[in-house]
TrEMBL record, chain A:
Keywords: Endoplasmic reticulum, Glycoprotein, Glycosyltransferase, Magnesium, Manganese, Membrane, Metal-binding, Transferase, Transmembrane, Transmembrane helix. Its EC number is 2.4.99.18. Residues 448-502, 756-780 are annotated as: Disordered. This is dolichyl-diphosphooligosaccharide--protein glycotransferase. The chain crosses the membrane at residues 21-44, 88-108, 120-139, 145-163, 175-200, 206-230, 242-267, 273-291, 303-327, 372-390, 397-418, 424-443, 511-535. Residues 580-639 form the STT3/PglB/AglB core domain. It comes from Eruca vesicaria subsp. sativa (Garden rocket).
UniProtKB/TrEMBL annotation, chain B:
Belongs to the DAD/OST2 family. It is found in: Endoplasmic reticulum membrane. GO terms for cellular component: endoplasmic reticulum membrane. InterPro entries: DAD/Ost2. This is Dolichyl-diphosphooligosaccharide--protein glycosyltransferase subunit DAD1. PANTHER family: DOLICHYL-DIPHOSPHOOLIGOSACCHARIDE--PROTEIN GLYCOSYLTRANSFERASE SUBUNIT DAD1 (PTHR10705).
Length: 780, 115
C-alpha cells in the first residue's frame, strides 16, 4: 500500500521515517495494553466471573466443546433446555466466539499453560478489544493516514459503548464480532485501494469469520453493496471496485451458507438480496464501460438505444417475477429482527418478546453522550474532513457512520456498531485539527525567524501523517496513476514540483494559516478535550459497566454489602435436587440455571419458541391450581422466582410480570392484561385486583413476606403488599436465599386417595362446569 | 424506422466484431473461459428447473462455483489487461498467483458445501 520510494539511508528524512515507524509501533502497543486494562475493573472489584445471562450459555457451550471436541459440539442436541423440546445447539448458535475461545484454550494448554476454560472465557473480550483497536488503526490509516489511525485506535480503546459489551467477563458474541467487523471493513477498503485479488480473498475470509460470530453480519452484507452503489452512482466506478466487490459476493455467500445457523438463508432471505442486486448492477455497469472502451462514440450511442429498448422489457419481466415471489411471503422475506430494525414499531405490534428486551428499546439522548461522549460532536467535523478530498475509502466511512447512526437510533444495543464509526470519524477530525494547528505554529515560528524554506513545511490542508516525513520527498509520476484515483489525501506530495503548483501551494497554505496564539490555545483546548474524554471513559468503565449482575453490591453506613444470592441458590439447586429435575422460571434465568445449577429448564434466553414461553407466562399468571396443572404437564419439579422486595432490587419478576401477562395473553386469550391492572395502574397493594392477588407470581413472591418486618413493606414497589397472610396449597417452599432474592418452590405431589368429602364436592362442582372436561381434582 | 434500426444493429455488430478482434489472444482465452463458465451455470439452472432443487446445497455450490470462477477470471483479465493504467506495475505472474489462490479457496469451500 505505501508506495513511497524509500529515501536513501542516512538522510534526515529516512531517520524521521524510521523514528516515526518505531514510535507508532510503540504507541500501538500501548493502545493495546490500554484497551485490555481498562476492561479489567470488574475483575478487580469483584472477581474473575462471567457476567449477565447470555455469557453463561456461551460458557457452557465452550465447556462442552473443550470436554468433548469439535465433532460432538457440531452435532450437539441439548436436551437440558426447552424441555421437552430440546435445542439443536450445533444449528442454532453462532459458533465464532466459542470456537475462538476453545482454540485459545486448546493452544494454551498444548504449550503447557494450564488456564481454565473460565479464565479464557473471561479474558477473551479484553484481548479482542485490543485487536479491534489495532484493526481500527489499520482501517483509518487506509482512509486518511497513520496519524488519524493512531487517534482513532486510541479513541476506540476507551469508548464506553464498546467497553459496555466487552468488559472482562462479558463473554458474548460482540466481544469477537466487533473486531471481525472492523477487520472486514479494513480488508474491503484495502482491496478497494490496491485492487489486489489477494486482499479480496482475505476480505471474504474475514467476512466468513464475521458470519460465524454474530447475527449483525447482515450489516456488512448490506453496507458494502450500498457503498458500491454509491460509488457507481457518483461516477467513481473503477476496475478496483469490481475486484473489491464481485469476489466478495460469491465467496461470501458460499462461506455464509457454510455456517449452519445461516444455511440457505444466505440466498433466500431479503437481508441478502441487496448484495445480489448490486452484483447484477455492477456487472451491467462493467459491461457498459467495457463496450464503451471498445466502440467509437457514435456506435456506442446506437448500442445504448438498442440495448435500452430490449433491456427494459427484460428488466420489467424479472422485476415482476421477483416482486411476486417476495410478496408471497408474509413478511416480504425479512426476518422479524430485521423488520423491527427497519420499522421500529413492528416489534411492539407483532412480536412482544422482541419488544420486551430492554436492549431493543430506542436509546435516549443522554445515552449518546454517555456512550460516545466527546465523539458525538467530533463526528460532524470528521465527516467534513472526509470530504476534502473525497475518496472511495472516505465515502465508505461517511456511509458507515450515517447508517450506524440511524440503526443506533432504533435500538440501544446497536450503539455498539456506532462506536467504531464514531471513533474513526473523530480520529480523522482530531488528526486534521492537530495538523492545521501545528502547521500554523510551525509556519508562524518559521516566518518570524525569517526562514525562506517554504518547501520544507508540511501542508496545512490535507493530512500529512506525523510520522511521514513526506515534505522532503516529491515522488515521481508512477505513483500518480495509482494514487490519483484512490486519493489518499497525499495529493500535495504527488504533484511534481514545478513552479505554478508550488506557488499555489504557498498561496493555499497562507490562506489556511492561523495566528500563533490562537493555534496554541486551540491545541491546549484539544488536549484538555482528550483529557475529559479519558476521565469519562475510565469513570464509565469503573462505575457503570463493570457490574457482573450476578453479584450485587451496595454501600451502606456499615461498609460494603455483597449480595451473592444468585450463585447461592444455583449452588443449592445443584446440591439438593436430582440431576434430572426440571426447573421452571422466567426465561431470563434459563442460561444461568443450566450453566451453574446444571438442571434442565423449560425456557431460556434463546427465546426461540414463543408458545413455550407463553405457556410459562400463563402459568405464572394463573391461580395456583391452574398453574400446578400446567407445570405438572411439563414435568416441572421446582419453580424459581426472583424477588427484590426485601432489599430493593428492581429487576425482579414482579416488575417483569406484566410482560409475562402480555406474552402469555398473546397465545392464550383467557389471560387478559386488563384483569391485572386497577384503573390502568399496575399495583400489588390492597387496591390490586383479585386476579393479581391470586396469581402464582404474587403468591410465590410474597409467601411469608410479612414475617420479615411484620407489615410486608415492598421496597421496590414502595407499598405494603395487599394479601399478607396466605397459605400455599399446591407448592411448598424449599429454599429462600439470604436476602430473599431467589425463592425456590417445589410442586406438591398429588394425593394418593380422594377422600369421601371430595367425592361429594366433585359431584357438586362437576354439574356447574359445562364446557370444561371433568378432571380428577384431588385437592378439594 | 425498422430498416434503419436493423441497419444500425448490423453496423453495431460489425464494429463490435472488428473492435473485439483487436484484443490480444491471452485476453480472448480468458473471455472464452468466462463464457464457458457462465454457460455451465446456465445449464445447471436449466437442469434444476427440470429436476427440482433437492439437494439445494449441491445446486447452490455448483452454480456458485461456475459464477465464482467466471468472476475471478474477469478479475484476472482486468489485472492482466495492458490497457488498464491502474495495474501497470502489477506483474502478470502476481495476478495469476492471486487468481490461483482465490480459486483454491473457492473450490475448497465448494467441495465442503457440495455435500
Amino acid at each position: 500500500m505505501a508506495t513511497q520510494e524509500s529515501p536513501p539511508p542516512g538522510t534526515s528524512s529516512a531517520m524521521r521515517n524510521a523514528f516515526g515507524t518505531v514510535l507508532s509501533a510503540l504507541i500501538l502497543l500501548l493502545i493495546g495494553v490500554l484497551a485490555f486494562s481498562i476492561r479489567l475493573f470488574s475483575v478487580i472489584k469483584y472477581e474473575s466471573v462471567i457476567h449477565e445471562f447470555d455469557p453463561y450459555f456461551n460458557y457452557r457451550v465452550t465447556q462442552f466443546l473443550s470436554k468433548n471436541g469439535i465433532y460432538e459440539f457440531w452435532n450437539w442436541f441439548d436436551d437440558r433446555t426447552w424441555y421437552p423440546l430440546g435445542r439443536v445447539i450445533g444449528g442454532t448458535v453462532y459458533p465464532g466466539l466459542t470456537l475462538t475461545a476453545g482454540t485459545i484454550w486448546w493452544a494454551l494448554n498444548a504449550i503447557n499453560i494450564p488456564l481454565s476454560v473460565e479464565t479464557v472465557c473471561v479474558f477473551t473480550a479484553p484481548v479482542f478489544s485490543a485487536f479491534a483497536s489495532w484493526a481500527t488503526y489499520l482501517l483509518t490509516k487506509e482512509v486518511k493516514g497513520s496519524g488519524a489511525g493512531l487517534a482513532a485506535a486510541a479513541l476506540l480503546a476507551m469508548v464506553p459503548s464498546y467497553i459496555s459489551r466487552s468488559v472482562a467477563g462479558s463473554y458474548d458474541n460482540e466481544a469477537v464480532a466487533i473486531f471481525a467487523l472492523i477487520f472486514t471493513f479494513y480488508l474491503y477498503i484495502k482491496t478497494l485501494n490496491t485492487g489486489s485479488l489477494f486482499y479480496a480473498t482475505l476480505n471474504a475470509l474475514a467476512y466468513f469469520y464475521m458470519v460465524c460470530s454474530w447475527g449483525g453480519y447482515t450489516f456488512i452484507i448490506n453496507l458494502i453493496p450500498m457503498h458500491v452503489l454509491l460509488c457507481i452512482v457518483t461516477g467513481r466506478y473503477s476496475p478496483r471496485l469490481y475486484i473489491a466487490y464481485a469476489p466478495l459476493v460469491v465467496l461470501g455467500t458460499l462461506l455464509a451458507a457454510l455456517v449452519p445457523v445461516v444455511g440457505f438463508n444466505a440466498v433466500l432471505t431479503s437481508e441478502h438480496f441487496a448484495s445480489f442486486l448490486v452484483f447484477i448492477i455492477i456487472h451491467v455497469v462493467a459491461l457498459v464501460y467495457y463496450i464503451k472502451g471498445l466502440l467509437s462514440p457514435k456506435m456506442f450511442k446506437v448500442a445504448v438505444t438498442l440495448v435500452v429498448s430490449i433491456g427494459m422489457v427484460v428488466c420489467l419481466i424479472v422485476v415482476a417475477v421477483l416482486v411476486a415471489l417476495v410478496a408471497s411471503s408474509p413478511t416480504g422475506g425479512w426476518s422479524g429482527r430485521s423488520l423491527s430494525l427497519l420499522d421500529p414499531t413492528y416489534a411492539s405490534k407483532y412480536i412482544p418478546i422482541i419488544a420486551s428486551v430492554s436492549e431493543h428499546q430506542p436509546p435516549t439522548w443522554p445515552s449518546y453522550f454517555m456512550d460516545i461522549n466527546v465523539l458525538a460532536f467530533l463526528v460532524p467535523a470528521g465527516i467534513i474532513a472526509c470530504f476534502s478530498p473525497l475518496s472511495d475509502a472516505s465515502s465508505f466511512v461517511v456511509l458507515y457512520i450515517v447508517m450506524s447512526v440511524y440503526f443506533s437510533g432504533v435500538m440501544v444495543r446497536l450503539m455498539l456498531v456506532l462506536a467504531p464509526a464514531a471513533c474513526i470519524m473523530s480520529g480523522i477530525a482530531l488528526s486534521q485539527a492537530f495538523d492545521v494547528f501545528t502547521a500554523s505554529i510551525k509556519y508562524q515560528l518559521g516566518r518570524s525567524s525569517n526562514s525562506k524554506d517554504d518547501a520544507e513545511d508540511n501542508t496545512s490542508t490535507n493530512n500529512a501523517p506525523k510520522d511521514d516525513s513526506s515534505s522532503g520527498k516529491i515522488d515521481k509520476g508512477e505513483e500518480v496513476a495509482k494514487e490519483r484515483s484512490s486519493k489518499k489525501g497525499k495529493k500535495k506530495e504527488r504533484e511534481p514540483a514545478d513552479k505554478p503548483s508550488v506557488k499555489s501551494k504557498i498561496a493555499k497554505k497562507r490562506a489556511l494559516v492561523l495566528p500563533l496564539e490562537a493555534s496554541i490555545v486551540a491545541l491546549l483546548l484539544l488536549i484538555m478535550l482528550g483529557a475529559f474524554y479519558v476521565i469519562h471513559c475510565v469513570w464509565a468503565a469503573a462505575e457503570a459497566y463493570s457490574a457482573p449482575s450476578i453479584v450485587l453490591t451496595s454501600q451502606s453506613r456499615d461498609g460494603l454489602h455483597v449480595f451473592d444470592d444468585f450463585r447461592e441458590s444455583y449452588a443449592w439447586l445443584s446440591h439438593n435436587t436430582d440431576v434430572d429435575d426440571k426447573v421452571a422460571s422466567w426465561w431470563d434465568y434459563g442460561y444461568q440455571t443450566t450453566a451453574m445449577a446444571n438442571r434442565t429448564v423449560i425456557v431460556d434466553n434463546n427465546t426461540w419458541n414463543n408458545t413455550h414461553i407463553a405457556t410459562v407466562g400463563t402459568a405464572m399468571s394463573s391461580p395456583e391450581k391452574a398453574a400446578w396443572e400446567i407445570f405438572n404437564s411439563l414435568d416441572v419439579k421446582y419453580v424459581l422466582v426472583v424477588f427484590g422486595g426485601l432489599i430493593g432490587y428492581p429487576s425482579d419478576d414482579i416488575n417483569k410480570f406484566l410482560w409475562m401477562v402480555r406474552i402469555g395473553g398473546g397465545v392464550f386469550p383467557h389471560i387478559k392484561e386488563a384483569d391485572y391492572l386497577r384503573d390502568g395502574n399496575y399495583r400489588i397493594d390492597s387496591e390490586a385486583t383479585p386476579t393479581m392477588l391470586n396469581c402464582l407470581m404474587y403468591k410465590l413472591s410474597y409467601y411469608r413476606f410479612v414475617e420479615t418486618d411484620g407489615k410486608g413493606y415492598d421496597r421496590v414497589r414502595r407499598t405494603e403488599i395487599g394479601k399478607k397472610n396466605f397459605k400455599l396449597t399446591h407448592f411448598e417452599e424449599v429454599f429462600t436465599s439470604h436476602h430473599w432474592m431467589v425463592r425456590i418452590y417445589k410442586l406438591k405431589p398429588q394425593k394418593n386417595r380422594i377422600r369421601g368429602k371430595a367425592k361429594k364436592l366433585k359431584l357438586k362442582t362437576s354439574s356447574g362446569l359445562d364446557s370444561k372436561p371433568v378432571k380428577k381434582n384431588p385437592w378439594i | 424506422m425498422v430498416k434503419s434500426t436493423s441497419k444500425d444493429a448490423q453496423d453495431l455488430f460489425r464494429s463490435l466484431h472488428s473492435a473485439y478482434s483487436a484484443t490480444p489472444t491471452n485476453l480472448k482465452i480468458i473471455d472464452l473461459y468466462v463464457v464457458f463458465a457462465v454457460f455451465t451455470a446456465l445449464i445447471q439452472v436449466l437442469y434444476m428447473a427440470l429436476v427440482g432443487s433437492f439437494p439445494f446445497n449441491s445446486f447452490l455450490s455448483g452454480v456458485l462455483s461456475c459464477i465464482g470462477t467466471a468472476v475471478l477470471a474477469v478479475c484476472l483479465r482486468i489485472q492482466v489487461n495492458k490497457e488498464n493504467k491502474e495495474f501497470k506495475d502489477l506483474a502478470p505472474e502476481r495476478a495469476f498467483a492471486d487468481f490461483v489462490l482465490c480459486n483454491l479457496v473457492l473450490h475448497l469451500v465448494i467441495i465442503n458445501f457440495l455435500g
